[in-house]
Target: Ras-related protein Rab-36
Amino acid sequence: SWKAGLDWTLGKTSLHIFKQLLCCLQWYTPEACLQFKDHFQAQVRSACHQRNTGTVGLKISKVVVVGDLFVGKTSLINRFCKDIFDRDYKATIGVDFEIERFEIAGVPYNLQIWDTAGQEKFKCIASAYYRGAEVIVTVFDLADIQTLDHTKQWLEDALRENEPGSSFIFLVGTKKDLVSGATCERTERDAIRFASEMQAEYWSVSAKTGENVKEFFSRVAALAFERSMLKELEKSNGRMAQIGAGNLIKLEGNSLDAPESNSQASLSCC
Ligand SMILES: Nc1nc2c(ncn2[C@@H]2O[C@H](COP(=O)(O)OP(=O)(O)OP(=O)(O)O)[C@@H](O)[C@H]2O)c(=O)[nH]1
Ligand SMILES: [Mg+2]
Model:
């Protein structure tokens, strides 16, 4: 299954798939990539290989999806989590969430995907759920350029509730099936510029056809997983043990190299 296919990062075939995900497919936009590397950082790979993954498999990482009403947030989540698409609009009231289970490099990993309401009157309910987001997905409608203009405000609101630099940011254009030709190219150019300003990675998707939906969430899961693993390794590296009458001994773990690239890396380094 595609979920098993998330085991990209170990071995030759998996590396190939990851490269494909990063470089070759049409939807991928190199100028709007948060990181440009072939695989997880070495210490993450080795920890996965040795099954030394601590509490990562038990953890649920939070993904918050925000954006104007009617842009297709619920449809995107429903396509991914339930593989369904509904043509009729049913506004989200407040918030809703889905939990999706992954297996990455042999390690179970869970994402809790929060679907928030775009309608102004529900904003104060929805914003109460922004806190602790490992990933913020800012959504706009490729067929309605105004919704792109509003993404910066949505992001600002979500960032206000989170520690600086603690969340991956994605900008997602939906309803790709409704746009084509020069208009589409223009919108995407604007979107890539916005993504650069927002320090976000840009994706275009269609919940109707399913185009790029699995690939997008796989990417979200992979980046969130790697960060969870790095945090876990940092924690176990600095662990203290108490022996006898209270003497503290610092346990020396594997030394952690500095990260190869920052998750919020500026677009110029991709
Ligand atoms: N053609 C097309 N229509 C879509 C797509 N995604 C969503 N829609 C339609 O757009 C409308 C709004 O979709 P929703 O997913 O409910 O929008 P939302 O962003 O969740 O709206 P709120 O919950 O009010 O914030 C619905 O009628 C969907 O069928 C898509 O990829 N293609
Ligand atoms: Mg909705």
Q: What stands out?
A: Residues 1-28, 240-270 have pLDDT under 50 and may be disordered. The two ends are 30 Å apart (CA to CA). Residues 213-237 form the longest helix (25 residues). The first strand starts at residue 60 and ends at 67.
